[in-house]
């Protein structure tokens, strides 16, 4: 039995018979070709693939909702807390002359001893009174002086256990054991504490002719070595501040000649301080507060290279 659905339509074998069939097949192929081309063009346009259609590409990108990019929160960097140091910015103190009145065993004196460093009673904080022969108290404006001894080779670390010997003239410009031969005031020695500090109570020194007002000091590595100035690690001087000196010397009854002597001298013309650098002078000049009536408090650094 023949399946009619599989039979080809009847046709002749002549050209006239084939022309309608050929025309129908050509039309069908053209239609298929058109549909295929249209579909490809639509696909390309939808993907933004045309180099010449830049606007289409941009529109596709901007038309979409962008996915936000998470911004990482920076982790804070911990800042280390620096270890505090006793002082900063110290310089090496210059070596200065100990002058003609040291009473440290390096010269002779007209007083009761040429070496106060070996005398009983020299280790003291308040040095306003004599401790050899008399108990006379030096007159003048009270001055409390704290010195901090530091090592310039170790970030200004304090030097504990060092002995500091100081001396200065009295309000009239005289030195005990020499020009004030019967007296031993305004001399003393102390040992630095854990902070490298020593504190002395004295009077504001006078200003004598030819010198800027000053305080002498010597530093020794220990109290046991402080038996002679020959063993000193440093011999130097402090330059008193001009403003405080001017205020103190305005009382010409207490300080009879200091104002006129100060008027004739400057730091630059002084034969001790005149050749020092600005940094050295700044360190050698005590920082001072107070008043003539209440007394003054002063502090200063002493820089050693250890």
UniProtKB/TrEMBL annotation:
<keyword id="KW-0560">Oxidoreductase</keyword>
<protein>
    <submittedName>
        <fullName>Intradiol ring-cleavage dioxygenase</fullName>
    </submittedName>
</protein>
<keyword id="KW-0223">Dioxygenase</keyword>
<dbReference type="InterPro" id="IPR006311">
    <property type="entry name" value="TAT_signal"/>
</dbReference>
<feature type="compositionally biased region" description="Low complexity">
    <location>
        <begin position="65"/>
        <end position="88"/>
    </location>
</feature>
<feature type="region of interest" description="Disordered">
    <location>
        <begin position="65"/>
        <end position="112"/>
    </location>
</feature>
<dbReference type="InterPro" id="IPR015889">
    <property type="entry name" value="Intradiol_dOase_core"/>
</dbReference>
<dbReference type="GO" id="GO:0051213">
    <property type="term" value="F:dioxygenase activity"/>
</dbReference>
